[in-house]
Every structure is written in C-alpha cells, then in structure tokens.
Amino acid sequence: MTAAPRTAPRTDTHLDTEAIRRLPKAVLHDHLDGGLRPATVVELADAAGHTLPTTDPDELAAWYVEAAGSGDLVRYIATFEHTLAVMQTREGLLRTAEEYALDLAADGVVYGEVRYAPELMVNGGLTLGEVVATVQEGLAAGMAKAAAAGTPVRVGTLLCGMRMFDRTREVADLAVAFRDAGVVGFDIAGAEDGFPPADHLAAFEHLRRESVPFTIHAGEAHGLPSIHQALQVCGAQRIGHGVRITEDIVDGKLGRLAGWVRDRRIALEMCPTSNLQTGAAASIAEHPITTLKDLGFRVTLNTDNRLVSGTTMTREMSLLVEQAGWTAADLRTVTVNAVKSAFIPFDERNALLRDVVLPGYESAL
C-alpha cells in the first residue's frame, strides 16, 4: 500500500493517560488465555505443580512481552503454554474469568467480547460444555462485582475453534447451545498460514443456518487470499486483525476486496501492539489502522492479549495519540465502530451508544 500515514503526528495535549483511562471503551478482540494477571498465573501454577520461567510476577510479565516480541506468530502463540496450564480446572477458570471482567472495568471498558478455545481447557477432566459454563459463571461474578463498584461492564463470549485441529464443528455446536447464556459468537484461532478458514466450512455453514454471528482471524500472518476466503467463502461478519487488507490499496485506490470490506462496513479487529510483536506492522506510527480509519474503513481498536502484549485499551489508545497523532474524535470513532459491530442485538448496541459511549466522550471533544 502506498497511501502514507499522517506525516506529522499531532499530540492531543489534554489526553493524558488518566483522561484516556476514564473514556468509555469497547474491545472486540481479546483472548481470555492471553489476559491473565501475572500474579494469578504464579499462584495457580504453584497449586497445579506447573513450572514457570519465573515465579516473580513482574519478571513473568516481562518474560511474556519479550518472548512474544520475536516477530514470529508461531512463537507468539507458544507463550500460551503457561496460561493454559492454569486454566484446566473449575477453580482456575472461575478465577481467571472473574478477574478478566474486573480488569476490563478498571480500564474503562464498558463492552467487551472475550474469546477462547474450550478444547484447550479440557486436560483437567472438564468437558467442553463444563468449560463454557464455568467461564460464563466466572464472567458473571466479575460483572456483578464491577457493577457493585460503580464501573459496570458487559462481557460477551466468542468460542474459538482451533484451525489446525478438527473440533471446530463441536465448538460451533457449543456456540449455538450457549447463545442465550452469554455466548455471542464464534471464531477460529491458531496459526493462520497453512490452515485456511475454508477447511472449517461445515462449522461456518452450521452457524449461518442457526443465525449465530462469527468472526475469523485473517490477514495477519497470511494475506489477501485469507481475507477473501474468510469473507466470500465462509461468510464472516468481521475480520480478526485484517492488517494485510492494505495489500489491496494502491495510492489510496481500493481494489475489489478492499472496496468490499469498506463498503459493506465489515469491521476490522485491529490490534496494534500485538501486530508489532508478530511482525504484521513496523511501528505504531506506521500501523495501517490510521490510514484505514482515514479512508473510511470500520476499524476497531483492540488489545488481543493483554498479558502477552503487556497492554491495555488505555495503553493502545495512548500509543496512537502519542505516536500516530490521534485525537479524542479518533478514539470515539473506533469505539463507536466497535459497538456498532458488536455481536449483540441492535437495540442493545444503540442503547450502549446513546446512554454510555457518546456521553462519555462529550467532555473530551
């Protein structure tokens, strides 16, 4: 893509970190097993007899960021060994899910969608259904505590099938079964290159028949063919990451696929810090999210994995303000985009925008 980002980032001086933390936020792309508290990993690993690289929470947090910053998506994914090791029991799932909701609320998030793969959490003897029910119980406890503290957050769940395995149809069945119990959609995750989304077409066709929305990781480690297949063959309503849609944009002119994505308002779940770690982007200033926003794409801002990337929504927003010249209006745009593209009913999205998000930005504009 030859369309350039803004040449001279402008700093919105009244948007310091605390001001940004207070802004209402919405996150659509965040993995439960990538967002644990370091201290929780240490405590649960000790109880499970699992060996960690270090038992110091601060050192463990630094280890995650360093290991994930290799520029290699496969190594990035491998860092999940230790978080998954402590999410194999009812106790571990309840605690991590409850803390997930509380951590979002503390970061000013008012709506979040958390995704995880139930099939990766059955080594302790839980069934797929028990994993989902337990996570929902933990999230409900966290949301209740956040509301009682005056920082309400709504968290919906996306169930992930692992694209390199063969249980995606089972997980799709779970998404259908739990759609009235907090599960709002479906995704496939895992190594993208070499595992095309159409390999799981039966799962996506089943979800369409049952009117369950889904997103697909595409356009991160693999390019336009992955995005095209996710949209035009599998029927995804959103795209996870999608940074390589820029390969279909030359001198600001959109190709057919890029035009389809923009014109149909297909949300791109963009994760700047994560994309830097995996080598999908060179810097925050040069990350495609800014150019795509300016071209009118429905971009959304996300954390992907808060522990692994050492980030929060406040940090992602702050980086874009400081290094890419974003303003409060830009932050409002991506937040509104996220709420509009959430996998919850239209009237609930409208109420969230009208009553929470838009009023929350009035003083910042």
Descriptive notes:
- By secondary structure, this protein is an alpha/beta fold.
- It has one domain (17-359): Metal-dependent hydrolases (TIM Barrel).
- Helix content is 48%, strand content 14%.
- The protein contains 17 helices and ten strands.
- The protein has helices spanning 17-22, 38-48, 57-68, 73-78, 81-85, 90-106, 128-148, 168-177, 201-209, 224-233, 256-263, 272-278, 288-294, 306-309, 313-324, 328-340, 346-362; strands at 25-31, 109-116, 154-162, 183-189, 215-218, 238-241, 249-250, 253-254, 267-270, 299-301.
- The strands form three sheets. A four-stranded parallel β-sheet has the order 1-2-3-4, sandwiched between helices.
- Helix 2 (38-48) crosses helix 3, helix 6 (90-106) packs parallel to helix 7 (128-148) and helix 16 (328-340) packs antiparallel against helix 17 (346-362).
- The radius of gyration is 19 Å and the shape is globular.
- Residues 1-8 have low confidence and may be disordered.
- Shape descriptor: globular
How would a crystallographer describe the biggest sheet?
4 strands, parallel
Q: Could you state the order of secondary-structure elements as H and E? A: HEHHHHHEHEHEHEHEEEHEHHEHHHH
The amount of helix comes to 40-55%
Poorly predicted runs are 1-8
Strand order of the largest sheet: 1-2-3-4
CATH architecture: Alpha-Beta Barrel
CATH uppermost class: Alpha Beta
Our count of domains comes out at 1
What is the CATH H-level superfamily?
A: Metal-dependent hydrolases
CA distance, first residue to last residue: 31 Å
Number of alpha- plus pi-helical segments? 17
Q: What structural class do helix, strand and pairing data support?
A: alpha/beta
- Determine the CATH topology: TIM Barrel
Beta-strand content bin: 5-15%
Per DSSP E runs of 2 or more residues, the count of β-strands stands at 10
What gyration radius follows from the Cα positions, in whole Å? 19 Å
pLDDT average, as an integer?
93
